[in-house]
TrEMBL record:
It comes from the Bacteria. Pfam families: ABC2_membrane_6 (PF06182). InterPro entries: ABC-2_transporter-like. PANTHER family: SLR1174 PROTEIN, SLR1174 PROTEIN-RELATED. The chain crosses the membrane at residues 117-136, 142-166, 178-197, 237-255. Keywords: Membrane, Transmembrane, Transmembrane helix. This is ABC transporter permease. It comes from Streptomyces vulcanius.
């Protein structure tokens, strides 16, 4: 019974996508256009140079395309299905999360797990196509591939907690759309989604090192393209694991505080 309940919770958002073929087609076209534009942009930037910020053209293109594919891991449309925390808080339906047999934190985790598994299927399919087309470089060795996979897993774990903290903010503010947009933008900027962090000033890189955002995407992709050598992989993975533990403890505390804020808003 518990397994069946977990399965039903995990498939909530993916089912919304699978039962809406036009939305899947639009997602496929958007992903394809993003990959083509990003690859073209970085190749154009390297038209008159072979190395910039310690990266070759192929490394930069590989990093940028993998960043686009990795963004598919958590890009499902919860808003259309009215399944975002901010919508539940606005309509007062968040109270039902606390009336179900499944605790809200477990439901949130299972739903996020289902989204990430579904997004992983998209990312792997896109990676296979890009690899076959020569858009991205393959891992330099089996060891690099293994370390990258482990780092990506830890990075997605950190990203889960970062997104959870952003959603938990909804429990303590009534009008937080702008704050959430700012936080999501900061997450993408500081994690290296828009551009590798090595292209930013030293003070920016130093500042981002004290935040968990680097651990979500920049570290795994840096390991893949060789910017972080295997000799330094242990310390990078250790930092990611430390962020997982710290954010897990923090969000657990916030869940307890959030339960005291649950009231029916709007509706």
């Amino acid at each position: 019974m518990a397994v069946l309940t977990a399965w039903r919770a995990a498939r909530v958002t993916p089912l919304g996508e699978l039962h809406n073929p036009p939305r899947m087609t639009a997602a496929l076209l958007r992903l394809a256009v993003q990959v083509v534009l990003v690859a073209s942009l970085w190749r154009g930037l390297y038209a008159h140079t072979s190395t910039t910020a310690g990266l070759t053209r192929d490394q930069a293109v590989t990093y940028a395309v993998l960043a686009v594919l990795a963004s598919r891991l958590r890009e499902l449309d919860q808003y259309t299905g009215r399944d975002t925390v901010i919508q539940h808080m606005h309509f007062g339906t968040i109270v039902y999360w606390y009336l179900r047999p499944l605790p809200p934190q477990r439901y949130y985790a299972l739903r996020a797990l289902g989204e990430q598994i579904y997004g992983l299927a998209w990312a792997l399919a896109g990676y296979a196509v890009c690899l076959a087309a020569g858009v991205v470089e393959p891992p330099r060795s089996a060891a690099v591939a293994g370390v990258f996979a482990l780092s990506l897993l830890l990075g997605q774990w950190v990203l889960y907690y970062v997104m959870l903290v952003i959603d938990q903010l909804c429990f303590f503010t009534l009008r937080n759309n702008a704050a959430m947009l700012i936080l999501i933008f900061a997450q993408n900027l500081l994690s290296g989604v828009y551009a590798p962090l090595w292209f930013f000033p030293d003070w920016f890189v130093t500042l981002s090192g004290f935040l968990p955002f680097q651990a979500t995407l920049s570290v795994p992709l840096s390991l893949y393209v060789g910017r972080i050598p295997l000799s330094d992989a242990g310390s990078a993975l250790l930092v990611q694991a430390a962020w997982v533990v710290a954010l897990a403890l923090f969000t657990r505390l916030v869940w307890r505080l959030a339960a005291r804020q649950v009231i029916s808003q709007g509706g």
